[in-house]
Design goal:
Structural class: mainly alpha
Distance between the termini: 31 Å
Number of helices: 6
Helix content: 55-70%
Order of helices and strands: HHHHHH
Strand content: under 5%
Radius of gyration: 14 Å
CATH topology: Recoverin, domain 1
Bound molecules: calcium ion
Length: about 90
């Protein structure tokens, strides 16, 4: 699923996401919880930082591998334990 999304947003089909393509992809994810869970809206500078962080080989594009690994790291970093507990509690009430 994520792979498909990544391919779909790789507009120029160079097997990587440019900063602009990543921006469009993250916007889509922030508006669609069904794909990977809620992704927060990102500011320009946050996206800038995210791109640099995920682009581990510094070739100006995010490959599928980089995207997947970046997303994994990022999700853990953003994990809000209190919020998560609240959601789980609500779910089981
Ligand atoms: Ca591309
Ligand atoms: Ca890269």
């Amino acid at each position: 699923m994520i792979y498909h999304v990544n391919r779909e947003y790789d507009k120029d089909k160079n097997s990587g996401l440019s900063k602009q393509e990543l921006s469009q992809l993250m916007l889509r994810l922030s508006n669609d919880e069904a794909i990977i869970g809620k992704v927060p809206n990102l500011s320009e500078s946050e996206l800038e930082h995210l791109f640099d962080d995920w682009n581990t080989n510094k070739d100006d594009k995010i490959s599928w591998i980089e995207f997947r690994e970046g997303l994994n790291r990022w999700t853990w970093k953003l994990q809000d334990r209190t919020k998560l507990d609240q959601i789980v509690d609500t779910f089981f009430q």
